[in-house]
Amino acid sequence: MEAMKLEKSSTVTKLTYSGILVALSYVGSLLGLIIPGSLAFDSMPAFFGAMILGPVYGAAVGGVGHLLTALINGFPLTLPLHLFIGVQMALIVGVFGWVCQKERRIVAGVLATVLNGPLSAATSALAAHLLGLPFSGWVLFNTMVIPLTIVSFLNVSLALILGNILQKRMAR
């Protein structure tokens, strides 16, 4: 009975932390490198959550966090494309968290940067083209690939740094 209470408490605690991280995703979206909400620090809380809470919770934070920031910014790339990007973000953060669990954090960081940078730009450009959006295809890819890769690297790096600091402090 005690183990069940602890497990429920643990789930409630993880959900609470996940909610806080989703809120921090919005705050991070205000810290845009180009314009707020565009390329910003909104995915850092998801990557951090994947390290600390696990890949499933991190993925949920990544998907919901993206959709929240897109909603608040008026779905600038349309709702269907942002839904696609939200699912893509959840998958990328989940993979990052899974690789982190294997104690391969550098590999996880490189993989997440590549998946969330060039690969994400390519698949989003293709999805935008298939949706018939005017800003799509190679134009969207060429516009987004370098800034998205840079901001992905910064988000993942910051999450890794904060996660490592927290882990060391908790070990004391």
Automatic annotation (TrEMBL):
InterPro entries the UniProt entry points to: ECF_trnsprt_substrate-spec (IPR024529)
Superkingdom of origin: Bacteria
Keywords (A to Z) from UniProt: Membrane, Transmembrane, Transmembrane helix
One Pfam family per UniProt: ECF_trnsprt
Coiled coil: none
GO molecular function, one term: transmembrane transporter activity
Membrane-traversing stretches: 15-35, 47-69, 81-99, 106-132, 144-166
Gene3D superfamilies linked to this entry: 1.10.1760.20
Protein name: ECF transporter S component
Organism per entry: Isachenkonia alkalipeptolytica
